[in-house]
Amino acid sequence: MESAKQLKLVALAVLAAALILPVTHASAQDDAWRTWAPESDISGVRLHIDNDLFAGRNLDRDYTGGLAITVSGTSARDGLLSLDPVLSRIDGAASELFGSSAAASVRHARQIGLIAFTPNDILTDEAQQADRPYASLLFASNGRIRIDADDRGAWTSSLTVGFLGLHVSQTLHDLVHEAVGSEKPQGYDHQISAGGEPTARYMLARHKLVYADPTGHIDVKTTVEGSVGYLTETSAAVSMRIGRFDTPWWSFTPELADYIAAPTPVESLGTQREVYFFAGARVTARAYNAFLQGQFRHSDVRYSFDEIEPIVGHAWVGVMTQLLPNTELSYALHYQTAELRDGDASRNTFWGGVQLAHSF
């Protein structure tokens, strides 16, 4: 576990360094980014797939995978069963609490998805009290980004509702294993809230651009985030991009990946072809994790607060490349320290994430 402690210390050090970096103005980029075009009905779509197989380790455990589809634009705000009206009210209350200023522009997104977790041994149908429980979440989410007038700060928020413990997670997991020719998992009957239980989460994050290279090839930002619901936590992160990019600094948010990526709007690409490397680290202080602790419904395997790790470190590296004039593909490798303090489930985890995004 020494590597886990080192990651947490490195993440804290990097964050502290980033917070004191001077802000360098890149006037050509800033002027372009501050010319806000009206938000279109559908500005873009994104397909996001997470899987531990993408990390090059055939383990199929812990955060074993996720799938999400995001649509951005005014249709995400105004569509049928949109959560944005409720999100807007909560954001309004948060703005009064934190004293945030009026935004120069607001962008909207809507996401549906599924995430799943498994213990190390997926071939037994017995409840495994010494390992992490099976868990899954089928969810719908609305998100928005509010950009400051000076383009040096932004707020991201999201509201997610969903169901824990539905059978659909096992069905999709079985299909994946059938496609790759491996044995199917046997223990989903013991997952958290087996049979289904509603859940929800509100997330609010503050981003700050702390460094923008005058050449437009490097930017660094910090993010402070908090959430209440099936994940109740607060975190601090630093992330950076190096390479050739033409999208705003606030439009790419790998630090908001509490497992699956947050519902972030897809921004239109500029005139130059984007190819860049990105990396970052985050430290999270977690008070509650429904995927380990369960909710109100009975769960065969669950952990108490005293058994979960209160501090979790997360680091990632990745690359983004533009495939077509309006289409980008990215890959990220994620590393996270253990979420449980003791036993077989006290282990660090790896997974890979692939995103395909198209703007209109």
Describe the structure.
It contains six helices and 14 strands. With 360 residues, the protein is an alpha+beta fold. The strands form two sheets. Strands 1-2-3-4-5-6-7-8-11-12-13-14 form a twelve-stranded antiparallel barrel. It has a two-stranded antiparallel ribbon with strand order 9-10.
Distance between the termini: 46 Å
Q: Sheet with the most strands?
A: 12 strands, antiparallel, barrel
What structural class should be given to the helix and strand makeup? alpha+beta
Provide the spatial order of strands within the biggest beta sheet: 1-2-3-4-5-6-7-8-11-12-13-14
Counted by DSSP, the helix tally is 6
Helical proportion, percent range? 10-25%
Indicate the multimeric state: single chain
Order of helices and strands: HHEEHHEEEHEEEEEEHEEE
Using DSSP, what is the number of strands?
Answer: 14
Note the beta-strand portion.
35-45%
Task: Give descriptors for this structure.
single chain, 360 residues, alpha+beta, 12-stranded antiparallel beta barrel, two-stranded antiparallel sheet, 6 helices, 18% helix
Task: Provide a compact summary of the structure.
The strands form 2 sheets. The chain has a 12-stranded antiparallel beta barrel.
Give me the secondary-structure topology:
Layout: H1 2-19, H2 27-34, E1 44-51, E2 62-72, H3 74-78, H4 84-98, E3 105-118, E4 135-147, E5 153-164, H5 168-180, E6 197-212, E7 218-229, E8 231-244, E9 257-258, E10 260-261, E11 275-289, H6 290-293, E12 311-324, E13 327-336, E14 349-359
Antiparallel strand pairs: 1-2, 1-14, 2-3, 3-4, 4-5, 5-6, 6-7, 7-8, 8-11, 9-10, 11-12, 12-13, 13-14
